[in-house]
Amino acid sequence: MLPKAVTDYLASHRQEHLAKLMELIRLPSVANTEPQQCRACADWLVEHLRGLGMTARVEECPGRPNVLASLHVSDQAPTLLIYGHYDVQPADPLASGARAPTTRW
């Protein structure tokens, strides 16, 4: 269970967080068919993470760029590693009225 201060913060900033999430998922980033799309998404992530107070950079790798970020809180605090993908699989087929995730909601 999260501390009350955390849940209060998340509740009071919910719309802001959702807006940022929607901004991110609207960026085309289909890596397996159009890897060049990932660069704009990587750049967005770097700027967003920097806005959160982290040091962040794009690391060029074969195929698509990786985003590396860190935030030093304390020498006594444990290290937390988060690994995730920002690229997506193609929405195929777009049938029965489904829309691409990059369209406005």
Task: Write a structural description.
- The chain has a two-stranded antiparallel ribbon.
- It has helices at residues 4-12, 14-25, 37-51, and strands at residues 55-59, 66-70.
- Helix content is 34%, strand content 10%.
In spatial order, strands of the major sheet run: 1-2
Amino-to-carboxy terminus distance:
31 Å
Q: What is the helix content?
A: 25-40%
How many distinct beta strands? 2
Rounded to an integer, what's the Rg over CA atoms?
A: 17 Å
- Major sheet attributes: 2 strands, antiparallel
- Ranges with pLDDT <50 over ≥5 residues? none
Shape: globular
Bin the strand percentage. Answer: 5-15%
SSE arrangement, N to C: HHHEE
Count every helix, treating DSSP H or I runs of 4 or more residues as helices.
3
Instruction: Assign the structural class, choosing from mainly alpha, mainly beta, alpha/beta, alpha+beta, or little secondary structure.
Output: alpha+beta
Average pLDDT confidence is: 85
List the helices and strands and how they pair.
Blueprint lengths: L3 H9 L1 H12 L11 H15 L3 E5 L6 E5 L35
Antiparallel strand pairs: 1-2
Gist of the model:
The chain is an alpha+beta fold and 105 residues long. The protein is built from three helices and two strands.
Give short descriptive properties of this protein:
alpha+beta; 105 residues; 3 helices; 10% strand
